[in-house]
Structures are given as C-alpha cells and as structure tokens.
Amino acid sequence: MAVMLVFSILVIVLLQVAHFRFLRQLFPERWRKALLWTLVAIHAPMAVYAILRLSGMVGPGSLRGLRPFFLLGMFFQVFTVFSLLLWGLGALIWRLGRRTPQSPGRRLFLQSTAGAGLGAMAMASGVGYREAHAAPEITRKELTFHDLPPGFDGLKIAHLTDLHGGPMVDRATLRRWRALCERETPDLVLFTGDFVDSLPHEIRPFEEAFQGFSAPMGCFAVLGNHDYFSDPRPIWRTLETMGIPCLENRHAVIQRQGDAIALFGLQDPIAPHGLLRRAVFGPGSRPQDVAPLLPKGLWRLALVHRPSQWADARSIGARLTLAGHTHGGQINLVPGLSSARMLGPYTEGLYRHGPDALYVSRGLGVVGLPVRLGAPPELPILTLRRK
C-alpha cells in the first residue's frame, strides 16, 4: 500500500506543480498565494479519504462525509490533465502565430482557452454521468464453433463483470442489474471479477442484491484485480455460500442434453502480490496446474478477468474465453479511440484466433469516477451455436 500511495501522491503532486504554473499565467500575481491554498484545500480531504479508506483505519460509514470531497479531487485531476493539454495546444497555436510568450493579449488568450476547456469538461462530465447510470446495453451475440457438442447448441450465457460494488455502485443498482439479467432467462451465468471496488466488506451489497440468484445450469465466477486489493477470502466465502463456485485455477463440468463441457478459471496475476497488504492469496494464472485436471476430450470454456490472459487460456484448449477488466476504456475523449488500448490490444467485444474466441465485456460498474464516456455499461448475452 505504501508504494502505491507514494506513487499516486507523486503523480498528483507533479501534475499540480505543472497546473499551478499554468494557473499563474491566467491570473494576476496577487492571486498566487490564494491559488496555492486553493489547490491544497482541494487535495487535502482527497488524500485523507484515500488513506483512511485503503488502510481500513475507520469504518465505511465514517467516511461518508469525506466522499464528496474525494470525488471533487478526482474530477479536479481530470480537469488538470485536460487543462494542461489545452495549455500545450494553446501555447503551440500562439507560437505558430509567431508571437513571443510576452506578447500582449497572451493571458486573455490562455483564459479563453481555459474557459473553453472547463465548459467542455463540465458538459462531458454531465454526459458521462448520465451514461454511467443508464440501463446497461444488452449485447446479444451468437458465437459459432464447429466442434461445440450438439447438446450445447443454443446455450444462452449471461456474462457479468466489473460490478465494483462500493461507494459508487450501491445495492439498488446491483438489484437492477440482477433483474435485468433474470429477464434474459440465461441457462448459465458467468462472472469475471471485480465484485468490489477495493475492500472485502463491499461484497455485502452484492450478497444482499443477488441472494437466491440462480440459473438452470448454475453460476460460476473468478475474482478480478480489485477483489485482491485486500484480503479476498471474505469474497470467496460469500460467493461459495451463495452457490457461486469460484473457479480460481479450478474447473467444473456441466452437462446438457447428454453432452458435457468443462468450465475453468484462471486466477488474476495480482493474487501473489496483493496491493494493500503484503500477503499471498494464490499463485496467479497457472494454466499448467489446471491442464492436468481437465477431463480429456471435453470442449472448454475459460473465465479470466484480464483479456491479456487469453493466451494462457488458449494454451490449455479454451475455445471460448470471457474477460472484463477494461471497462471499454470507461472515459474515451476521442471518438473511435479507446483509452483501454493502454491495457493491451483487446479492449471490448469479440475477437477470434483461428477456432478460438474471446469476448471482452465493457462491464457494468465504474472505478475512480462515476462517469463513462463512449463506453456505456454492458451486459452480454451470448448464445453458443454449433456450425
């Protein structure tokens, strides 16, 4: 936790040093001290909230009053990055006009640029908040495989991922997602991780919202990286108690109309390292340990959290792999360009590699900010077909 906090603080400090230099050029010299204390006032409650929340020093109820200040600080980080980008663009335009940095009117030009940026960000935040809290898109796809056992032709799978129960996803929202899934009447429900935002007790709203949730052929899960930020054992226990087996480097065999297929899951790579505490909660992704246990000759479906684990899943025969993690970028400022590209080539949707398929869901919840832009929440309903 110490390393993560130090790194985050360092990034934020460097951003604000650059931002302070920008703000000094927008306002008269006499405002310099007020600007500095304004930045401190914005960031101090944010830092206190983050430290108290991640350390578990106080209960979640005690932090409710600080949470709006944390969100304000997070929005301010986005505004900072946006302002600095516009500052760079404005400085470039100013120089292309062959004007010196001290030319008259430069401050007015930068003020106009900053005002336009603030207006654009405010509008984008409103649109993004509405998008994040809208009903998830139901993505219905038929996936064909030449070797799918005949008994599984027409199997309907609901894929739920990245719920992120916690400060920004409450019990009522989780209940709505459950009802939406149940209306689709899937045969099989598969979860690919990030049940909680960061702390194990945040599984309770999921437990209450999904209690009694079932499907004819069962529900199965793997955990995501956020589930390993702290001790994942309460999450494991809760899921197992609810009748949702957690396939962490394990497998299960399901049968339908006289045929059988193998489901297996690969543990998230963060498990051996953790984040908020120095503890090992598993070996991470270990396809070599799963392979000897899988029944030979059965068609295989894999659950992973990260799309980057697709190669591991394919290496032991997964024909279909389901993943989440990317949120489809969550905030995509440039239309057609997913910010999830920073995580790898698989950002959202269906990918094929020969006879094998990967489906990456944008997921349901949010992380960091209660905003989605160009990446609406998604509930994939996948129907398997035999060619």
How does this structure look, described?
With 387 residues, this protein is an alpha/beta fold. The chain has 2 domains: 2-132, no CATH class; 137-386, Purple Acid Phosphatase, chain A, domain 2 (4-Layer Sandwich). Helix content is 38%, strand content 17%. The protein contains 9 helices and 11 strands. The strands form 2 sheets. The chain has a 6-stranded mixed sheet. It has a 5-stranded mixed sheet with strand order 1-11-2-3-4, with no helix packed on it. Strand 6 (259-265), helix 8 (287-290) and strand 7 (299-303) form a beta-alpha-beta unit. Helix 3 crosses helix 4 (106-132). The chain is elongated. It starts with a helix and ends with a strand.
CATH class of the largest domain: Alpha Beta
Number of distinct beta strands: 11
How many distinct folded domains?
A: 2
Residue runs with pLDDT of under 50 for 5 or more positions? none
Strand order of the largest sheet: 5-6-7-8-10-9
What sequence of helices (H) and strands (E) makes up the elements?
A: HHHHEEHEHEHEEHEHEEEE
CATH topology of the largest domain: Purple Acid Phosphatase, chain A, domain 2
Distinct helical segment count: 9
CATH-defined superfamily of the largest domain:
Metallo-dependent phosphatases
Overall pLDDT score? 87
